[in-house]
Automatic annotation (TrEMBL):
Coiled coil: none
Domain ABC transporter: 19-256
Name of this chain's protein: ABC transporter ATP-binding protein
InterPro entries associated with the record: AAA+_ATPase (IPR003593), ABC_transporter-like_ATP-bd (IPR003439), ABC_transporter-like_CS (IPR017871), ABC_transpr_LolD-like (IPR015854), MacB-like_ATP-bd (IPR017911), P-loop_NTPase (IPR027417)
One cellular-component annotation, GO: membrane protein complex
Taxonomic placement: Bacteria, Bacillati, Actinomycetota, Actinomycetes, Kitasatosporales
Keywords: ATP-binding, Nucleotide-binding, Transport
A Pfam family annotated for this UniProt entry: ABC_tran
GO molecular function: ATP binding; ATP hydrolysis activity; transmembrane transporter activity
Species this protein is from: Streptomyces palmae
Length: 260
């Protein structure tokens, strides 16, 4: 058993880690302008688990996700996807790893307007010269509820449907892990709930691993666990969260992101 700074105990996990950060540090600037965005962060993201990352503005949550996804360089420590150490990879190998092992979902849907939903979903695989696994693709499309909308272009889809296309695109290549940065930030509450439900289903029904940065306690309640950051450090963890328990934990941070 391990104990969080607030005294809560968590049971040991037996599943394999999809991604691991060890003493991960990210520093911006030098001298008086230096900012420590991540301060020796160590955390594991287990396979087939949905993790939400939360914290006050400037706490380092987006920086942690970007470093773990290979979108930003690290100043020290280790970031690993599966058995692959990201900090040891050259640019070409890092690009290949992001393409083959990582899925991305962002606030902006990033869909090509000239392609229909199916073409947008398979675009990353088409660029990589990989053929989609039809059975898996059909399962993903069914999971996100897009079976009747595949021939529609983005301007013929609602915001929620466009984000579902983005979710399906991230899932279609069967990545080892999906990173989602505020994926419901541009959606109304109903569409946001649909997308979060699809992400949760992708974990439970498809065995996917999802790591989501969010500021919303309701969004975090869809996850299996929530990791809280403050001042570039992990300060707490909550399993089986509800919106109420997440909000209660967030109230322990003051306006500057410190733990009270």
């Amino acid at each position: 058993m391990t104990t969080t700074p607030y005294g809560a105990q968590t049971a040991p996990r037996t599943r394999v880690a999809a991604a691991v950060a060890t003493d991960l540090t990210k520093v911006y600037g030098q001298g008086e302008t230096q900012v420590v965005a991540l301060d020796a962060v160590s955390v594991e993201f287990q396979q087939a688990e949905f993790t939400a990352i939360m914290g006050p503005s400037g706490s380092g949550k987006s920086t942690l996700m970007h470093c773990m996804a290979g979108l930003d360089t690290v100043s020290g420590g280790s970031a690993r996807i599966g058995d692959t150490e990201l900090t040891a990879l050259k640019d070409k190998k890092l690009t290949q790893l992001r393409r083959d092992k990582i899925g991305f979902i962002f606030q902006a849907f990033n869909l090509l307007p000239t392609l229909n939903a199916l073409e947008n979903i398979t675009l990353p695989m088409d660029i990589a010269g990989r053929k989609a696994d039809k059975a898996w693709l059909d399962q993903v499309v069914a999971t996100v509820g897009l079976s009747g909308r595949l021939k529609h272009r983005p301007n013929q889809l609602s915001g929620g449907q466009q984000q579902r296309v983005a979710v399906a695109r991230a899932l279609a290549g069967r990545p080892e892990i999906i990173f989602a940065d505020e994926p419901t930030g541009n959606l109304d509450s109903r569409s946001g709930a649909e997308v979060l439900g699809f992400l949760r289903n992708s974990v439970r029904e498809l065995g996917q691993t999802v790591v989501m940065v969010t500021h919303d306690p309701v969004a975090a309640s869809y996850a299996d666990r929530v990791v809280f950051l403050a001042d570039g450090r992990i300060v707490d963890e909550l399993r089986d969260p509800t919106a109420e328990t997440v909000l209660d934990r967030m109230k322990r941070f003051d306006a500057k992101g410190r733990v009270s």
